[in-house]
Amino acid sequence: MDIDSLRKAIKVFSQERDWEQFHSPKNLAMAVSVEAAELLEIFQWLTPKQSEVLPDDVLSHAKDEIGDILLCLLNLCNRLGVDPVQVTADKLEKVKLKYPVDKAKGLALKYSKL
Question: Residues with Cβ < 8 Å from 23, sequence gap 6 or more?
Fold first, then answer.
């Protein structure tokens, strides 16, 4: 399934349940944050090495949370009339300017510190 088909399926899912009444941009943005926090909780006390090799049950839980985040985010895109692929491509171009390879390669510094 491509992203446009997924967006349409999410819209139909919400419409069939009459949930769009609850999906204000504010509520959806909050839901993205809540679901992201649930993903963070999975990794909270793991070492970096442990986070690289998750047991199957933990990986399954992480996948569910990633799915929840994307569902909320795509719902928000639908509600705001935003093309998620285009805004991501646009943002990538902005980030490339902030973090040129010759200055940022191998560094985990904020652009203002480069």
Answer: 14, 75, 79
